[in-house]
Amino acid sequence: MTPTAPGGILRPLLARAGAVALFFSSLVPILVEEGGVPVEEGTLPWVRWANVVFAGLLAWTEVRRFRAAGNRAAHLREEAVDVALLGATLLAVLVEGLGGGAIFGLRGADALIVPSKGYIVANLVLRIVRLFRHVVALKWSYPKVFVGSFVVVIGAGTLLLWGLPGARGEGAAPITFLDALFTSVSATCVTGLTVRTTGADFSRFGQTVILVLIQIGGLGLMTFAAFFAMAVRRGIGFTDRLLLRDMLNVDPLNTLGRLLAGVVTVTFLAEAAGAALMFGKFTVPGDPARLLPPADQLYYATFHSVSAFCNAGFALYPDNWMPFRSHPLMNGVIMAEIVLGGLGFTVILNVLGLTGSVTHRLRARLRRRPLTEEEEGEEERREKPRVSLQTRVVLSLTAVLVLGGALLLWVFERDGSMADLDPLSAVLACLFQSVSTRTAGFNTVDLAGLQAGSLYLMVLLMFIGASPGGTGGGIKTVTAAVLVRSVTALARGRRRVEMSRRSLPVEVVAQAIVVVTLSALVVFLGSLLLCLTEADYISADGVAGPPPFLAVLFEAVSAFGTVGLSCGSDGGLTPRVSDMGRIILMALMFAGRIGPITLVLAMGRRTGAAYEFPEERVMIG
To answer: What distance in Å separates the CA atoms of residue 108 and residue 49, rounded to the nearest whole number?
Structure first.
C-alpha cells in the first residue's frame, strides 16, 4: 500500500478549516453592527464595508470551486442554489446601484452593503442544510441528535444575548451569563419562564434573538434543516429519512417528505394568519389608550403569533396578556393558535386531508356532467383518508380538558378573582386560562389571587400538557388517555387495552407508563431540590422563608411542562429564586422539552441480550 504524503492529508483539512474560518469571520461584522458592540468613532463605516469584503471572499470561494470541478456542468446542477444566490446578489447590487434604489430603496453604499449582508446570511442557511447531512453521516441515534441540536441552539442563543451589548434594552441592567442562559433555555424549550422582563430588558435585537429561538425550539433545528434540504433540491437520503422518521414519529417513510413540507407550511401559514388578525390592535405598553405605530404593530403581531403557536408564552407586555383580558378577538386568536400548535402536526394534517376529501366529493356531486373514464380511474386510485385513532383521541381529550378546565376554574373563582368581571370577560378569562395553562403560559388573570383549588387544577393541566408531535410539553394527552384506559382495562379484567375499537400494542402501553413514571419522578425531584435551595427565599412582600410547597410544585410542573406560568405576586416565584434554583428550573425545562424517555436514551447505551431469564411473579399493590 502506497503511503499517503503528509501534504495529501493536510491540504484538504486546511482547505476545509480555512473555509469554516472564513464563513464564521464573515458573520462578525453583522454581529458587531446589529448587536451594538461599541466601536470607536469612525470605525463603524469600516465594519459595514467589511461585509462587502467577506461577501466577495465567499463568492470567490464559489468561483474557485467551479473552476476546480472536473465536470463543470454537473457542478452547476448540484450547486444550482449557490449559483442562483450569487447571481441574485449581483443582480440586486446592479439594480439598486444603477437604478438609484428603484426597488428596495437602497442608495449609495447601502446598495452594496445590504445585499452583501443578505448573501452572508443566506450562506448561513445553506450551511445549516449541509450540517444536517454531516450529522446524519455520523450515524448518531435520534435521541443524541435531538438533544445535541437543542444544546447547540441554546448555546448560540446564550452567547448572542450575553455577549452582544445590543441585546440589552435601553436603561436596563446588564444581562448576566446566567440570565442569558436561562432566557435561552426558556425560549428554545418554548417555556416562557423569565428572570428578566422581555419587553423592557431586551432590545429589539435581543427580542428578535428570543423570537428565533422560540421558532427553532418549537419545530426543532433538524426539522428546519431537513426542510431546507428538500427546498433547495438537495434531497434527503434513506439514512436521513430514518432519522427524521424517529424525530417526527411518522411511518411509512414515503409520507415523510409530504409531512415535513406540511409541518413547515402549516406553521408559517398559521403564524402569518394570527399576525394578520392581531395587526392594528396592539397598544403602547403602559398606555392602553394609545396604539403602536404600524411598524411596531407588525413586530408585536409577529412576535406574539409565533410565541402562541409555538406554545412559548413569551409576551412583550410586563403583565403578559392581561391588557387584552376583555378583548374577544385578541383572546380568540391566541387561544386558536395555542390549540392548533398543541394538537400535533399529524393530527392537523389528518384533519386537513379529511377536509380536502370532503370538499372533493362535494365538488364531484355538484358537477353536472358525468365523469370521463380517466377521471373515474383517478377517483378509484385516490387514497380515501380516514380519521386516525390519534386524531380521535387528541381532539376529544383536548375538548374535554379545555371545557372541563374552564368550567372548574369558574367554579373555583366565581366568587374570587373573577367576581368583579362581567359575564363575557369571566367566560373569556376561564377559557383562555384553561387553554393556556396546558402548555402555553399566557395569562389574563393574576395568578397570585387564585384559590388553592384553581392552582391544583392548573398543576394537573400543566402536567398533562399538549399532544404528541406538537409544540407543547407535558406527558401529552394521548399518554394520559392510554393510562386511563389501562386502568379501565384492568378493572374490567381485559388483557388488552382498547380505544375506539382498536387494541393498543403492549409496547405503547408500557411506554405510556414509563413516561408518566419518569415525569412524576422528575417533578418530585425538582420540587424537592427547590425546597432545599430556596430556604432563604424572600418574597415580593419582603417576607423571608421558604415559599409555600404549592408554589414550589406549581413552578416545577410549569417548568417541566414547558408552560411558563409562575405562581406568586409581582412576577411570580421564578425571578426571585436563587442561582441554584434557576439551574434546577433550567434542567426541568430541558428535560420537559426533550422528553424523559429521549433524555434517558441519549445518555445511555443500547445493549441487546441474546437470552431470557425464567419468569416469576411478584406481588403488586
So the answer is: 12
**What is the rounded distance in angstroms from the CA atom of residue 26 to the CA atom of residue 122?**
12
**Which is nearest to 598 in space by CA: 538, 520, 530, 519?**
519
Q: What is the DSSP string of 406-458?
A: HHHHHHHHTTTTTTTS-HHHHHHHHHHHHHHHTTT---SS-GGGS-HHHHHHH
Asked if residues 331 and 444 have their Cβ atoms less than 8 Å apart, the reply is yes
Q: Is residue 73 part of a domain?
A: yes
- Which stretches within 282-388 are classed as H helix? 294-309, 328-343, 345-366, 373-381
Q: Residue 4: its pLDDT value, please?
A: 47
Kindly tell me the burial class for residue 266, based on how many C-beta atoms sit within 10 Å of its own C-beta (0-12, 13-18, 19 or more): middle
Q: Label the pairing between strands 283-284 and 502-503.
A: unpaired
| Whole-angstrom distance, CA of residue 532 vs CA of residue 538 | 14
Given a cut of 60, whether residue 101 has pLDDT beyond it is: no
pLDDT digits (tens, 9 = 90+) for 256-294: 667 777 788 888 999 999 999 999 999 999 888 899 999
The total domain count for the chain is: 1
User: Which residue has cell 446601484?
Assistant: 97
In a domain, 119, yes or no: yes
Amino acid, res. 56: G
pLDDT in tens, 102-130: 555 566 677 777 788 887 777 777 776 66
Provide φ and ψ at 229, rounded to 5°: -60, -40
- Tell me which of 245 and 397 has the higher pLDDT: 397
Structural domain contains residue 482:
no
Residue 1 is predicted with a pLDDT of 44
Q: Is residue 572 part of a domain?
A: no
Q: What whole-number distance in Å separates Cα of residue 178 and Cα of residue 141? A: 30
Residues in Cβ contact with 127 at an 8 Å cutoff, skipping those fewer than 6 apart: 23
The region that residue 174 occupies, defined by phi over 0 for left and psi between -120 and 50 for alpha, beta otherwise, is beta
> What's the domain range around 125?
14-138
Residues shown for the chain: 621
pLDDT band at 312 (very low <50, low <70, confident <90, very high): very high
CA distance 465 to 477: 7
Q: Are strands 498-499 and 287-291 parallel, antiparallel or unpaired?
A: unpaired
Considering the chain, what is the average pLDDT of its residues? 81
Helices then strands, each counted (H, E), the chain = 24, 4
How far apart, in Å, are the Cα atoms of 37 and each of 28, 160, 330? Answer: 10, 11, 37
Closest-CA residue to 198 (of 216, 180, 215): 180
Q: What is the pLDDT of residues 327-384, one digit of tens each?
A: 999 999 999 999 999 998 888 888 887 776 656 555 655 555 565 666 556 655 555 6
CB–CB of 255/345 below 8 Å? no
Q: What is the phi/psi pair of residue 448, to 5°?
A: -65, -20
Cβ neighbours for 54, distance < 8 A, ≥ 6 positions apart: 22, 25, 26, 29, 116, 120
Q: What is the CA radius of gyration of the chain?
A: 27
